Amino acid sequence: MKTRIESTEYRGVRAISLSNESLAALVIPSRGGKIASIRLAPDGGPFSGRELLAQPEGSGPLNPARYDSPFTGEEGWGFDDTFPGIDPLPFPYYPWEGIPVPDHGELWSLPFDARMGDDGSVSLETPGIRFPYRFTKTLSLEGSVLLISYRIDNPTPFPFRGIWTAHALFRAEEGARIELPAGTTEILNAVPGLAFPERGGRYGWPRGPDGIDRSRVPPMRGIPNAWQKYYCGSGTGSCGIGYPDGLSVSMDWDAATLPYLGIWLNEGGWNGQYNIGLEPSTGGMDSPEAARAFRMEAEPIPPFGSVGWRLRIAAGLRESRES
To answer: Does residue 167 contact residue 82 with C-beta atoms inside 8 Å?
Structure first.
């Protein structure tokens, strides 16, 4: 199935589209290589033309992203990469200890160099600003699957222990089911909220302390603390979302390289948005400092070395599996 690659625009910003007969993806090189859209092809089927990712409000042009600016509701859509951490805290490891990590990391606000390959792929890369690394990701389509290959190079003589996290925000819908890796029975809470009140608290899954099935997405609630952010182990490296109309979105990865999975469910408590974040990660709890405290550190990138992994996103009609 041949992939078409085209230069286009998204909300007034240059973008690159990849598409075939089953799927289309849109990436914005100047905005951190953000994947702005993953859309099923308009094939006349039950999910024809369905957008998978949460989208920005309104229809006007996007404002420019600025390095080291707060990650606000204006950015709460699409699929960003966060590195070397999510929380804006000092980096804890020698010889970069004390250097502030920007809010949601460096990558989302940086312009990427983009190359369109003859093989139907799009490669994007950028160097770090405060931290010495080179980040590369390559997008391609394999039938109804979006395949993303990652590589981070460390050009220094010191190990580098940053945390990469997929900040992939999907559409939320009341009654949808969040599917954690098979066999998950407990989650570790990262951000206090209405459902899970204690940071670092361990809660049963899928039923929380109130007895409610937390795998089911509640209705939109625009009240304070109406959110959930928690972690579990990657298990076999698979998670997903099952929607009430039968659409299933799945994400698969190499669990040996990405041993943790974060879930962000915004029920309207943060900037009035309604979305689900599926967030495989090299380390846990949103920052290198917290990961160290909870013994969920990322494996270091070796001196003069690199680390790489692949992520697959697919969608279609299938029976939801049990979490």
So the answer is: yes
Q: Are 292 and 257 in contact (CB under 8 A)?
A: no
Is-contact 207 246, C-beta < 8 A?
A: no
Point out the residues of the chain with pLDDT beneath 50.
Answer: 320, 322-323
Whether 298 and 164 have beta carbons less than 8 Å apart is answered as yes
Q: Strand pairing partners for 187?
A: 203
First-to-last CA distance in the chain? 33
Q: In the prediction, which pLDDT does 323 show?
A: 41
Name the DSSP letter for residue 77.
Answer: S
Domain ranges of the chain: 4-55+65-317
In the numeric block, which tokens belong to residue 25?
A: 């993806």
Residue given tokens 């490669």 in the structure block: 123
Q: What are phi and psi of 306, to 5 degrees?
A: -150, 165
Model-level pTM? Answer: 0.96
pLDDT of 210: 82
What is the C-alpha to C-alpha distance for residues 66 and 199, in angstroms, rounded to an integer? 30
- Does residue 296 contact residue 231 with C-beta atoms inside 8 Å? yes
Amino acid at the residue 198: E
Q: Which structure tokens are listed for 315?
A: 């969608």
For the chain, percent of residues with pLDDT exceeding 70: 98
Instruction: Give the class (CATH, top level) of 4-55+65-317.
Output: mainly beta
CA angle, 36 as apex, 266 and 18 as ends, to 5°?
140
